[in-house]
Amino acid sequence: xxxxxxxxxxxxxxxxxxxxxxxxxxxxxxxxxxxxxxxxxxxxxxxxxxxxxxxxxxxxxxxxxxxxxxxxxxxxxxxxxxxxxxxxxxxxxxxxxxxxxxxxxxxxxxxxxxxxxxxxxxxxxxxxxxxxxxxxxxxxxxxxxxxxxxxxxxxxxxxxxxxxxxxxxxxxxxxxxxxxxxxxxxxxxxxxxxxxxxxxxxxxxxxxxxxxxxxxxxxxxxxxxxxxxxxxxxxxxxxxxxxxxxxxxxxxxxxxxxxxxxxxxxxxxxxxxxxxxxxxxxxxxxxxxxxxxxxxxxxxxxxxxxxxxxxxxxxxxxxxxxxxxxxxxxxxxxxxxxxxxxxxxxxxxxxxxxxxxxxxxxxxxxxxxxxxxxxxxxxxxxxxxxxxxxxxxxxxxxxxxxxxxxxxxxxxxxxxxxxxxxxxxxxxxxxxxxxxxxxxxxxxxxxxxxxxxxxxxxxxxxxxxxxxxxxxxxxxxxxxxxxxxxxxxxxxxxxxxxxxxxxxxxxxxxxxxxxxxxxxxxxxxxxxxxxxxxxxxxxxxxxxxxxxxxxxxxxxxxxxxxxxxxxxxxxxxxxxxxxxxxxxxxxxxxxxxxxxxxxxxxxxxxxxxxxxxxxxxxxxxxxxxxxxxxxxxxxxxxxxxxxxxxxxxxxxxxxxxxxxxxxx
Length: 664
Prior knowledge:
By secondary structure, the chain is α+β, with helices and mostly antiparallel strands. It is 11% helix and 26% strand.
């Protein structure tokens, strides 16, 4: 007999970040960011194969958590089915898009979702000062309140299209936490023990044969470092490690080892629940500062977003993917040499001006009334019939709804009303998005803010990956206000990849009004600043010898944006299989700088040392890619051949693998 319950209103991924030329550390997709960037850092080893000149296999680390670098395949394919129709019509769920997840994330993102929340305690261990126990306020009632917070958040975020409810059960684990090898051992025990109390079919709202989401609420312990088993995270039981209960299997499952009496940790639950639905992370997994830009600290969306830094609302692109924004909420603007057109819901809108521009009003993206939204404006040269293209997205943010949920200032300061503009690169290849935020670099991601203050340092001293919301006496500096302009010559610009040579759009925006609840913008097209197409060229400007290699600099005849970061390498005497990659690469405009090391034991008098840029290393004007180019690096004619090389330690030299820098 089921007892009364407390009532409340793809394969496990191996995450690989290719990084042999930079020794780039990578991070798993956990919701909270670490105060110490060195935590959870893994060294990725170089690997050179003899049958290819591009960089290949590197060490893979299996992670406890599911890879969240992309939208879940189910969510993405549903969006493709929904939006690959003329004029974005018929975007509401129907028979061909039932939102029943089979292989991926299992929490529904439309209609109703059910959360099975388990409040877990562990037996005390004498050597544990905290005894893995919840503090007094972090109790089952606080967890119920957190689920209420979760329900209200997603009801607002979805404009009334998603209602998440659930129940809380308390359980005392049989063993100390350290004795559980992984989350599934604990989950199996808890679900088996509570089987008499719970009908697990009650938590399969979409009737897909999987529990929508299971939440394990554990005590926080300072020993639980970033990336460990009990760090807050979301995973999916794709192996069916846990036998079905009452005919339903475990799907998405969340670890929440935080004090849910605190609002900041309730926001962690909201972020992880986003993964349970299929939303990807929007922050970068690489926090090492090895970005080939002058602003490596700018990662993710560069702004408040629930899937970046657990703050604010989901952005308009995410909501469009999920179906929370429909055709009636999206203003499509095509701006090109044929003129400017704007339509919404299949109807032409906006004020057409004598100069060919269009003036559009946009009201609040978030409101305090469920179901109301001003929606978004998307602007591109040739948007076609779906969202899977390149465009600029505008939303008008006000201090309302979920946009109130940011890291609190003291005293609380209201967010200024203004336009947030996002650059979105949502092209598809084989049914998957080409770009992501977790691995792609600044100016070349899936989605990022076109931030007027991007050159300013954006992060707090105590939490370095969270954007500062306000700057002293100035308003929030990451928006556009009345009097601001955005075009191909501003910084930032309307050029994709911030590269006027390869990403020119000719789109101009002038922001006319920024009132409390709405703004207006004038949009037009001009090719006055369009660069002339020319054959791509790059030449060596300097090569200064250093122990074991060279500091090299190159200059191109156009602004450089990498298409293939592994497409540049050096080799000796035509032996391309012994490839040496550029490290510490920095691109600044049309110049490239870096270090390249080689195996000095292979250098002889008359040796030829070349650097090759393979086909497609850089983007070029007109959407093309650069040709293959080889450049000779001078080798001294007075070269003295070495009998031995390596690091010097006392009176000995220590042999090293090829390419290691050091004293030779």
